[in-house]
Amino acid sequence: MNRSNAFALLTEYVSDQSLVRHCLSVESATRAYARKLGQDEDKWGIVGLLHDFDYERWPNPPDHPLHGSAILKSRGYPDDVIYAIKSHADYLADCPRLSRLDKALYACDELCGFITACALVRPNRLEGLEPRSVRKKLKQVSFAANVNRDDIIRGAADFGVDLDVHIAFCVAAMHASAARLGLATPASEVDS
Predict the structure, then answer these.
(1) Local confidence band at 181 (pLDDT 50, 70, 90 cut-offs)
(2) Which pLDDT score is estimated for 187?
(3) Can you tell me the mean pLDDT for 94-109?
(4) Half-sphere exposure of residue 1, counting CA atoms within 13 Å on the CB side?
(5) Domain housing 141
(6) Minimal CA–CA distance to 153: which of 169, 164, 145?
(7) How many folded domains does the chain comprise?
């Protein structure tokens, strides 16, 4: 199991660049948490990278993530990686989030998507994005309406992190990869 092979698998199944960038953003956050918590960065990063690799082809529950789980199993991915990916789906009752990895993925998934939405409406993108701005947007039900706010709040609580601290941490992790996430401050605005 290595990152190059995982990225090749992601791009084999996903053509939508927004979904690829979402997976990359979750990878950035889970990898950063692994580093902070002294865990296996490659494993946590690969879980973040591959958590939605089957979503484009099989978006309906429980096809997602069960089809992906079968593919990962056939390619020799470890059981704990497959389980963590399955556990990010609330509708799979037989896969409760047990490990720190399971909880980290769930905590980062919806939040990274929401942070991306927040960044895309700001001239400086991720630069200077603060938790209070993200929280303000969370209260606007019409903004990024497809993002489940309860999942964001529950994810941070289950992971045992304060929501504002979690938001700031994920923003920082994503900021470190802003260019590949399509969230870097546009050059024309930096030069002004």
Answers:
(1) very high
(2) 65
(3) 97
(4) 21
(5) 3-182
(6) 164
(7) 1
The full DSSP string for 138-191 is HH-TTTTTTS-HHHHHHHHHHHT--HHHHHHHHHHHHHTTTTTTT-SPPHHHHH
Pick from 146, 137, 127: nearest CA to 185? 127
Q: How many residues does the chain have?
A: 192
What is the reported pTM?
0.95
- State pLDDT tens for residues 50-65: 999 999 999 999 999 9
User: Could you tell me if residue 192 is inside a domain?
Assistant: no
Rounded CA separation 52/19 (Å)? 8
Query: DSSP secondary-structure letter at 65?
Result: H
User: Is 59 in contact with 49 (CB distance < 8 Å)?
Assistant: no
| 191 in a structural domain | no
The residue with tokens 């979503």 is 55
Residue 187 falls inside a structural domain: no
Q: What is the pLDDT of residue 186?
A: 80
